Every structure is written in structure tokens, then in C-alpha cells.
Amino acid sequence: MLIKQFFRVLATLAVLAAALLIGHRLWVQYMDTPWTRDGRVRAYVINVAPDVSGYVVALPVHDNQSVHRGDLLMQIDPARYQIAVAQAQALVAEKKSALDLKRADARRRADLNSLVVSAEQRENSSLEAVAAAADYEAAQAQLAAAQLNLQRTRVVAPVDGYVTNLQLQQGDYASAGTPRLALIDSNSFWVYGYFEETKLPRIRVGDVAHIELMTGERLEGHVESITRGIYDRDNPQSRDLTADVNPTFNWVRLAQRVPVRIHLDHVPDDVTLAAGETCTVVIDEAQRGKHAASAAAATDSAASASSAATVVTH
Predict the structure, then answer these.
(1) Residue 94 sits in which domain range?
(2) Which residue of 93, 129, 203, 216 lies most exposed, with the fewest beta carbons within 10 A?
């Protein structure tokens, strides 16, 4: 009986010790390990606006279409700008003829002696030639501006990306400088992990980060930077620029969340990223310095290859 009781007590103590150990590990994992479920996929969104005004006569893209840099997004009616180019070309031809006439007149008067043409007439003809040259240059600048406006009737994609939330339709009037189309830069995706401030001391720039999307797909990245400031809602600025201090104080203080920017090292082709997606971000402290070491090794390899190429060249 004593032996049975001893083993029962021993088993109970073992189960209790295992429970305490597991509870401690879970507490450390949840409270101390730098991880967060509050992660967001972000990307740069370019607001595409035409540089000239006019009716949209062609819209060769559709919503959520993938485009490459230089692809046509919309075509503004070019008729008015073609006429402006033709007028500017005619003005250039007119000013060129006037310049040739003034220069020829100035040369002819310069060859005549003072008995036929006075010094004042020579000076006036020379100045008229200079003024005609300035008019000709102004006409050329006007032609260049007209040609640029005609070129800008073609609104092209500034980067590789995806057209999103397309509301523009063919036949709509587009005003210069007014955004009419949103383009998500496909090469700009990153992740913002909103970590509690109590976990920031265990995060370093360059740390390896594991990202798990809500779909279950996993990505790898590294800490690119840590935000150095967030808005203080308890201390806004008053109208006379003095501090507006909240007179109440909550005894329960919640840890503020600070954005940590995660650079995505590689995005597989079968993973579809969308700006605004939520994800879980875990910082891998065990692999601290791995990304920095890999970058340094790549830099050293590039430097060695460059040195070797220089030696071969010599």
C-alpha cells in the first residue's frame, strides 16, 4: 500500500511539474516572445492622374489587371493637342523666316559704308536680328510644350503593378492633375507587424521574421526598420499650441503597439498578396544575424568577382 501511495504521489507531482513547465513555456511564448497576430500586408498605391485634360477615348485596361511599366492605361482625346502642335509648327516656320530676313538685312547693312547707312541703322538692324532670334527660340519652346502635351495624352503605367478599384470608363472627362486610376506597385509589398512595446527590446533590425497569412501560406522576411514614433492620443495639441493634458488616468495600462516594418525576402509565384491582408509575424531570435551574415557574404562574393574580373582585364 505504501508503495502504491508513493507512486500515486510521485505521478501527481510529475503531472503537476509537467503542467507547471508547460504553463511556464506557454506564458513565455505568449508574453515574452516577439510575435504578433496584428500584422498587415502593405504596398505602395500610385494615384494615376493625367497631365492634360480631355475625354477618355480609349481604356485598354480592366479592373485588377496586371500591367507592366510603360503599358497604356488610358488615352486622352489627342485632337485638340494635335492642332496645337500644328499651330506651333507653323509659328516656328514663321519665326524662322523672320529671323532669316532680319539676319540677312543686318548683314547687308553691315557691308554698306557710313555714307549709305548710318551707324544707328546698323545697330537697329542688328538688335532686330537678336529680337527675331529670341522670338524663334520662344516659338521652338512653344512647339516643344505642345508636343509634350500631345505625348502626355497617353497615360502609361509608371511601374509594374495591378489596376485596382477601376471606376473610370471610356467617355469620361479627365481633368489634369485629378487622380482617376489606382495602381498597386507589385514590387513594393511589405508587412507591418504591430508589436507591443514590451516586446520591442527583443527585436533587432535584420532579425529573421516568419509570416503566416490567414490563408495558411507562409513567407519569410527580415526586420527592415522599427517605427520611432506613434500618435499620443492622451496628449493632443490645443488651439493655442499648448499641451492638452487629459486629467483622468487609467490604472490599467495597455501596452502600445508600435509598427515594425518587415521586408519580404521572397514571394512564391503561387502566393497571391493583397494590400490590407492580415497575418501573424514571429521574430526568430535563434537566427539573429542570419540575414546580415547572408548579405555580407553576398557582398564579399560580389567584391571577389569584381576583383577577379579586374585582374583578368589587366
Answers:
(1) 78-152
(2) 216
This prediction has a pTM of 0.74
Q: Give the dihedral sign, CA 51/56/57/58.
A: positive
Residues forming a β-bridge with 47: 182
Q: Is residue 100 part of a domain?
A: yes
Residues in the chain where the model's pLDDT stays below 70: 1, 6, 24-32, 108-124, 234, 236-239, 289-314
Give me the number of domains the chain comprises: 1
**Is 19 a member of any domain?**
no
Alpha-carbon span 114 to 124, nearest angstrom: 14
Q: What is the pLDDT of residues 145-172, one digit of tens each?
A: 999 999 999 999 999 999 999 999 999 9
